Amino acid sequence: MRDRSATSLIRHAQRLSLGLVLLLTLNTVPAAAFDHAGFAKHALEQHILPGYARFDTAAKTLADKAHALCKAPSTAALTATRSAAREALESWGRMEHIRFGPITENKRFDRLLFYPDPRGIARKQVDKIIRAQDEADIDPERLSHASVAVQGFTGLDRALFAKGSDKLATPTAEPSYRCRYISALADDIAKTASATLAAWSGPYQKVWLEPGPKNPAYLSAEETTQALLRAYATELEAVRLQRLEPVLADAASGGHPHPLLPDSGLAVAFINANVEGVRSLLTDGGFTDPVFAGDEKEQSAVVILESVVTDLGFALRAGDSAMAVAPDVFASAEAREKLAPLDYSLKNAEETGRSALGALTGQSLGFNSLDGD
Fold this sequence. Notes:
By secondary structure, the chain is mostly helical.
């Protein structure tokens, strides 16, 4: 008997294909142009600022829990710090698709997460820091300019979750070097989150909302819409082509994959957060809001995008199903098998979403930047 989830995906894909045919063959008279300026304001207020605010709050909580762990090590404190790390990681994952603006300053984006890492560079470099116990390596200023492989959630994944990290729960007279490294990483993540939110709430808001000849980033409001379209497509590409398919292929062939966040086993939790983020971009960001649809063609595009939201929901359920089998999905063959619908749904959401977003906004994204298609 065919799996019900697979059958529902096939039927959903058939409905989407029919919708696309109707969209592409629809003859309509021109209507009012898509409100790019209004859309930019809506996306900022309903999606970008709230998302960065949640990341800021979660990152500050992580820093507080890391300081508490170092001050009074215990099993409860270690558990609380690991839980806060997951919350902060997922909060960042939901905003990672905004790969432009303040997050690109001072290598903030790269410092938060180093991946792909096919040679396991992060593991080697973080282990070297922990073994050497050189105070200069965890000096906040020096750490913020160190290799991105030893910073952010990459360094935290190894230091807080890898072999030997359980000793962080053992009471000590002075905070251990490893704990102080973790605390420094958490502080830097919190600093990055705070600075990014402050920029979007302050000077960059003017850049985003007031495009023109003197604007350093956007000549027209259409370019802000383009930035959000690229954010949607690029994130789905990165998840599927860099984080999901290569690891599944390596595992299937008997190779030795280097998955994202290998020591915490939070790779699929982070991927689900990425999917939640792009889904929120469609819904909270305004792409599925009928108010921005003018003629029948644009209204049809909104209907198709609502179906894409459903596709992303299929992907999230596949990720949840895999995590229910094993906490570290990529380490379990049985759990990995549950990820096939996730991959299928993401590919469909990307391809269908590109067409519908173009029809809605009058903008084109061009070729796939990660695989050359």
